[in-house]
Amino acid sequence: MTGWLHHLIIAPILLPLLASALMLAFDERRRVLKRWLSLGASALLIVNAAALLWFTSDAGTGAVGPQVYLLGNWPAPFGIVLVVDRLSALMLLLTNVLGFTSLFYALARWDRSGPRFHALFLLLLMGVNGAFLTGDIFNLFVFFEVLLAASYGLILHGSGTERTSASLHYITINIAASLLFLIGVALIYSVTGTLNMADLATRIARTDPGDLALLEAGAAILGVAFLVKAGIWPLSFWLPRTYAAAAPPVAALFAIMTKVGIYVILRLSFLLFGEASGDAAGFANDGLLYGGLATMVFGVIGILSARQLTRVAGHYVLVSSGTLLAGLGIGGQALIAALLFYLVSSTLAVSALYLIIEPVERNADEEDMIAGVAEPVFDDEYVGAIEEEEDETGVVIPGTIAILGGGFIFCALLLAGLPPLSGFIAKFAIIDALLRAGSVGPMNWTLIGLIIVSGLATMIVMTRAGIDLLWTPGEDAPSRLSLVEVAPIGLLLAVCLALMLWAGPVMAYLEATSVALHDPAGYLAAVANAAPAGGTRP
Amino acid sequence: MEMLLSLAIGVLTASGLWLLFRPRTFQVILGLSLLSYAVNLFIMAAGRLRSDAPPIIGKDPASADPALYADPLPQALVLTAIVISFATTALLLVVLLASRGLTGTDHVDGEDGES
Lengths: 538, 115
Known about the structure:
The structure holds two protein chains of two kinds. Chain A is an all-alpha fold. Chain A has two domains: 1-283 and 522-538, no CATH class; 286-366 and 395-501. Helices cover 69% and strands 1% of the residues of chain A. Chain A starts with 10 loop residues before the first helix and ends in a 10-residue tail after the last helix. The relative contact order of chain A is 0.11. By secondary structure, chain B is an all-alpha fold. Chain B has one domain: Helix Hairpins (Orthogonal Bundle).
């Protein structure tokens, strides 16, 4: 990556920032303009992320390995760096696909139920993209705050008692977690004297054994801050309620936010506590394992006991986080690759589920409706950017149910991990990796058991909900279903289908990602050797 | 100096935590503010305590000995942390008022268990 292509690394941050800043110049009446602006920006973000994925993989121009962008053109340990490697590029692509589909879905009517939806949405994308790109812990904190601040605004989008009440808890918990983040950063800085992740990795191996306890305490406090985001039990009680209260497109995007926590834990545990870091190696793996297993149990019970589909989805997010954390705790190259596949597949599926819940429940009886979801301020008649397609709204009655039912079954199969869809491939790969590990301990069997039980629980609940909501004839005719709502759900499910069809190449990419994670030498060298543009500074 | 600072951090943290677990929203916000002060002091302490030492190295090469200066990085971090916690506290206050208006109570759960 040379010349202007190099700036692609910072574009996932700058593009949404500039687009949302531009939107502030227009008032809320310029809705069509804002829609085009935000849709265009998020479509460009997908292209950008795909390009980064291309350049970091072997398929590109031969420029293999992590790419580094020096912010302010200062060399690595002194300035802040952005680093894009296989893992970051993968997460960026996943984020921006979710961003585009959720935004598209929001055009149906959700972006009209409150002001500044598009600007906040793009800022959230900016924060998540930045968190995936940055190579500096304090910069990570700043991007976390950007994404959290935007998410506070989005949670409140549409207003209403339930949302305000849930967001009060959400904001309080996240501010407290941010304070823990700062304490962890301060402790790590006081021991190592650096905040650059790559520099930290090299210094941790040389830490004085007397300071190691302080360093580990710092890392543990930092880890708690990320685990709150990831929703580990017992720090997860806020999650299902908050996600259920959020507007559907917002909840669909929030599916990626727990994965931000998982990503940071993945990144830092391999960089700081990998095999090369001496005494500190393998720190807290047991904690992740047991915490992950407890999260899975809690999530499964939650799935079975939930009375609303949005709560089911929230608890499924927990099960997904728990699986990933427990798998991380066990570790191993093949397992990490399988977990990454599961991460991508389950995030897409949960996001699709959040989007499909609302149209499905709209057709059901009133008592099945989610309590507290405010009706949109404006009426349902769709007038907007894509009005040429208005013919597609209000298709014949059986068609609506058929589309919804098909999508719902598709989601259920994906979430439960039944063949032949990508959810099955992901779970199969995880179980396969767990069984092929050198010593198959009792914890491997526990995890396998919980993965299968969670799939069964999901299937039971989805079947129950499907019969209730889709097969019970309602008293009114089914409501209209607009193409703007169907298309993003279809797009998400199509991505899952593509994951299934091209599982081979995807797994090859993920295995290479896992190898690179286990041997961070390439990452460290790329950061240390990144040369400032335009020669040296005076 | 060390004792004073650690006592200040400890007292602020303890009061902040106690307030954070109170049932009224205003107490929670005050608790978060106190906690953020404690964390800001803690970050300052992470850069080692130095009095009467400037954080910026001058142009004069004779005085370019890093031992004469305070660590500038934690000060920059604290500045960022102050701005961010100020902004989130302001946002939380707005949510508090909205919650008070919608539920008619200042209990954090939106309903008063005792009444």
